[in-house]
Amino acid sequence: MPGASRARATLKDVARASGVSPATVSFVLNETPGQTISPETQDKVRAAARQLGYTPHRIARALREGATRTVLLNVAGLPSGHSLESFVIGLDDELRSLDHTLLVTHRRDGAALPAEIVDAVSPRAVLDLGALYYGGDDTGWEGGWSTGLAAHGLAQIRHLAAQGHREIALALPGVGVDARFVQIRLEHAREAAASSGLPAPAEVWLADRAEAPGELAALRRHHPGVTAIAAFSDDVALVVLGSLADLGVRVPEDMAVIGFDEGRHGALWRPTLTTVRIDAEAHGRRAARAVLGREPHTEPPAPSVIVRRESA
After folding, report:
1. Cβ atoms 260, 234 nearer than 8 A
2. What predicted TM-score, i.e. pTM, was given to this entire model?
3. Longest dimension (CA), the chain
4. What is the mean pLDDT of each successive set of 10 residues along the chain, which is 312 residues long?
C-alpha cells in the first residue's frame, strides 16, 4: 500500500542477505571479541546491514547484553561423577554472580555442538569440554594436561608408589565412557608411573560386573607382581573390591585399591575405599571468569587430595 512503512529489517534478514548464520551476524555487528571471522565475511555482513537499513532492536540488544546473557556448556560425553557435578556448580554460581545464565547440554557421543544449537541460543560464550579435552585450543586445557580435571589421575599412581607398590594395574571401564577420555587417563597414568620409576601399568578392562572376577583373576595370573590397582573411578573401584572379595583376595593385605573422584558410596564399603578428591568447584569458578574474559579473582584450585581410607 502506498505510504505504508516498510517492515523493519531483522538480524535474520541480514544473515540471509550475506549468506551467513544469524550468530555470525551478531558476532560481527556487536564486535564480539575472540571470534575468528574473516575480514571478507565481516565486510559482507556490514554491507548487507547498511543496504537493508538494519539497526539492532532495542529489546533484542537488551536481551543480548543484559540479564539474559547466556553461556552454553557442552559436557560432551565426559563421565558423570562428583567432579563434573561440582565443576558445573562452581561454573553456574560464578556466572550468576556475573549476571549470566548457564545452559548445559550433554552430548553423550562426545561430538561438538551442532551449529543450529549455537545459532538458536546465541550465547555470550561457549565452553565445549569435548573440544578442550579432545581437540585442544589455546587455553592450556588440551587433553586435560594443564588445568583439565583428567590430570588429577596422576595422584593415584604417585600415592601408590609412595606406599611402596612397584607394580600397579589400572582398572578401566569397558563401556559407557568415551574412549578418548579413557586414553587421556591412560597417558597420565603412564607418565606418572615413568616419573616414579615404575614400569608401565598393566591394564584390566571391566565391562561387566559378572565377568569382572574372571578378568581380575586373569590379571593376577599374567601379572603376579601387581600389588595395587588404580581404578578409573570410584564406581569402577567398587566393582574391583566386590570382585576381589568374590575371589578371596584380601584388601589391602593382598591387593591395594584406590578409586578416583570421591563418589558417595566408597566410605560405606568394607574395607572403605581410598580415593582422590578434586576441588572441581574452584575449577568451575575460574572457568566461568576465563570464558567471559575476566581475570581470575581467586588463587588456583587446590591440588588433588588423597582421601586415605582402608583399601590403600
Report:
1. yes
2. 0.68
3. 93
4. 54 88 79 76 89 64 52 77 86 88 75 69 77 51 45 83 95 82 84 91 94 97 97 94 97 96 88 91 85 73 84 94
d(Cα 237, Cα 54) in Å, to the nearest integer? 59
- 44 and 50 Cβ atoms separated by less than 8 Å: no
- DSSP 8-class letter at 136: -
Residue 194 C-alpha cell reads as: 615413568
d(CA 36, CA 163): 50
Q: How many CA atoms lie within 13 A of 181 on its CB side?
A: 26
Residue type, 312: A
Conformation bin of residue 176: beta by default, left when phi > 0, alpha when psi is -120 to 50? left
b/e burial code for range 148-185 (CB count within 10 A of at least 16 → b):
bbbbbbbbbbbbbbeeebebbbbbbbeeebbebbbebb
C-alpha cell of residue 300? 588456583
Alpha-helical regions (H) of 145-303: 154-162, 179-195, 212-222, 234-247, 280-291
